Amino acid sequence: MSSTTARPEVTFGSKSSGRAIRNTVATVLVWAAFLIALIPLGWIMWTVLTKGLHVLFTGTWWQKDQSGALPPGFDHNVRGARHALVGTLEMSVVTSVIAIPIAIMTAIYLVEYGRGKVARLVSFMVDILSGIPSIVAALFIYAIWVTTFGLKLIPVCASIALAMLMIPVVTRSTEEMLKLVPNELREASYALGVPKWKTITRVVLPTSLSGIVTGALLGFARVAGETAPLILLAAYTQYLNENIFSGNMAALPTMISTEFSNIGDAVSSERLWGAACTLILLVLVINLLGRLVGRLAKVKK
Amino acid sequence: MAKRIDVQDLDIFYGDFKAVEGVNLSVEPRSVTAFIGPSGCGKSTVLRTLNRMHEVIPGGRVQGKVLLDDEDLYAASMDPVVVRRTVGMVFQRPNPFPTMSIADNVAAGLRLNGVKDKKTLNEVVEKSLKGANLWNEVKDRLDKPGAGLSGGQQQRLCIARAIAVQPQVLLMDEPCSALDPISTLAIEDLIHELKDSFTVVIVTHNMQQAARVSDQTAFFNLKATGQPGHLIEIDDTKTIFNNPTEKATEDYISGRFG
Amino acid sequence: MSSITGVALPEETPSGGQPKPLDADRASTGRLGDRIFGGAALGSGLLIVVIVTLVAIFLLAQAVPALSKDHANFLTSTSWVTSQPMAFGIAQLLWTTVASSVVALLFAVPFAVAIALFLTQYAPAWLARPAAGLIDLLAAVPSIVFGLWGGFIVAPKWAPIQHFLSDTLGWIPLFKPTAGITGGNTIFFVGIILAIMILPIITALSREVFAQTPTTHKEGALALGATKWEMVRTAVLPFGRPGVISASMLGLGRALGETIAVMMIISGLPNGAKWTWSLFNGGATFASKIASDASEFSGGLSTGAYIAAGLVLFILTFVVNAIARIIIERRKDFSE
Question: How many whole angstroms separate alpha carbon B19 and alpha carbon A36?
Answer without folding.
Answer: 58
